[in-house]
């Protein structure tokens, strides 16, 4: 098996050459013309960072790390709703606030639109999906929320005409034994 050595030349480009034990193939590689499109990567990096070409390696490394950090921050922000021009798009959530007149609680907060259900007393009650039990904790976990739109609902109101009471029809009463 042939072994390869990596050598570094004066112009800082990497060249591969074969051992002297490799024979004819090593002679072909050694006699190959130099590449015309050699790229001075240090010069490219210095130009990109707007630094002089004689900048110390440690300073270039720090500048590259700063660019990387800023890139990752911008990438994170992009997933959280940045517009293409870089302005922050206002992100909001709609919270449906259900106030039940039957219960003694302060109400229920949900992310889903509430739907009517019949409770045991026959009154129409509203239930929501994705209940928020702790609003502060919810906002802490969802820092992308810029503002909240509240939609208020009221249920289980007792009306004088009792129109919300559930009245089973006569056929259902006959079939129940």
Question: Would you kindly provide a brief summary of this structure?
Answer:
This protein has 177 residues and is an alpha+beta fold. The chain has helices spanning 24-30, 41-48, 57-79, 135-141, 170-175; strands at residues 4-8, 14-18, 92-100, 108-110, 115-118, 124-127, 131-132, 147-155.
Q: Note the total helix count.
A: 5
What structural class do helix, strand and pairing data support? alpha+beta
The succession of helices and strands, N to C, reads EEHHHEEEEEHEH
Give the overall shape, derived from the CA principal axes.
rod-shaped
Oligomeric state as shown: single chain
Q: Please provide the count of β strands.
A: 8
Region (Disordered): 1-34
Structure commentary:
The chain starts with a strand and ends with a helix. It contains five helices and eight strands, in the order ββαααβββββαβα. A hairpin with a 5-residue loop joins strand 5 and strand 6 (124-127). It has helices at residues 24-30, 41-48, 57-79, 135-141, 170-175; strands at residues 4-8, 14-18, 92-100, 108-110, 115-118, 124-127, 131-132, 147-155. With 177 residues, it is of the alpha+beta class. Among the domains are: 41-79, no CATH class; 92-155, no CATH class. It is 29% helix and 23% strand. The longest helix has 23 residues, at 57-79. It is rod-shaped and about 95 Å long. Residues 1-34 are annotated as: Disordered.
């Amino acid at each position: 098996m042939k072994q390869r050595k990596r050598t570094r030349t004066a112009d800082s480009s990497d060249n591969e050459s074969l051992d002297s034990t490799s024979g004819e193939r090593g002679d072909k590689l050694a006699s190959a013309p130099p590449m015309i499109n050699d790229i001075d990567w240090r010069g490219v990096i210095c130009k990109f960072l707007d630094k002089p070409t004689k900048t110390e390696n440690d300073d270039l490394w720090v500048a590259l790390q700063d660019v990387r950090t800023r890139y990752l921050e911008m990438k994170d922000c992009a997933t959280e709703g940045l517009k293409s021009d870089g302005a922050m798009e206002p992100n909001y959530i709609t919270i449906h606030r259900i106030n039940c007149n039957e219960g003694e609680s302060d109400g229920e907060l949900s992310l889903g639109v509430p739907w009517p259900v019949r409770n045991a007393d026959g009154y129409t009650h509203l239930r929501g999906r994705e209940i928020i039990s702790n609003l502060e904790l919810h906002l802490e976990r969802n820092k992308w929320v810029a503002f909240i739109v509240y939609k208020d609902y009221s249920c289980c109101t007792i009306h004088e005409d009792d129109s919300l009471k559930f009245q089973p029809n006569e056929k259902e009463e006959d079939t129940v034994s």
